[in-house]
Amino acid sequence: MIHYSVVIEQFLIFILILIRLASFIYVAPFFNTTGIPRYTKVGFAFFIAMIVYSCNPDFKIETSSIFQYSALVINEVLIGLILGALCFFSVQIIQFAGKIIDMDIGLSMAQLYDPTTRMQTGIMGNFYYYLVMLILVISGLHRYLISAIVETFKVIPLGSPKFSPKIYDIVLDFMSDYFIIGFRIALPVFAATLLLNCVLAILAKVSPQMNMFVVGMQLKIFVGIFVILVTIFMLPDIAKFIQDEIKYVLAQLVKSMY
What we know:
- There is one protein chain.
- The protein has one domain (4-255).
- 75% of the residues lie in helices and 3% in strands.
- It has nine helices and two strands, in the order ααααββααααα.
- The chain is elongated.
């Protein structure tokens, strides 16, 4: 004899698991690009939800009405979106550093359309972004993200997370780190162009007949590209720095939800 109440309860538990995973995959880096079809994302989330549900048969929820279950669904959506969004913003630090570099060397007007994010990005931002993303894929960050969101089911109770005010402080700290890390990545080019501007200012005073505007634009591009080529060996360290930031943010957020 089939106990329909037990079957429905287990089905509702599976839906909550699927919603948390799907919300995370929808905004997390590597998985949120437009090049991945939506059906593939849903199927991937469904496959992982099946594994999580099979490995954790003791999940239980307490619901007495459709409104209470709707509140549980909203909580799971918020968990997935918050964790995935901050991971995505951590990767976007590379784009922010690229924009600083483009402004310093005079390429800020040269924008490219990135079909994966459907955004206008700078040349150097795109260059740094794809190289760092390639290094992150090689280092297995995408596998870490999946394992991290799966591990949250052991820490954050299903359907009853605790959104403490500490999340607000974590987000504020992350935003300050966002600008600091981005500027540190662009610091070599920024320092080189600043020194070049000082030299050009001295030359403009020494020989006013020279057109420093025309000469300076070409020199900035040359110096900027030269510094980027010289410091290209720092990309693995940058990728590790981004990876450590993602792990730190995820750990802090999970701690604030249980």
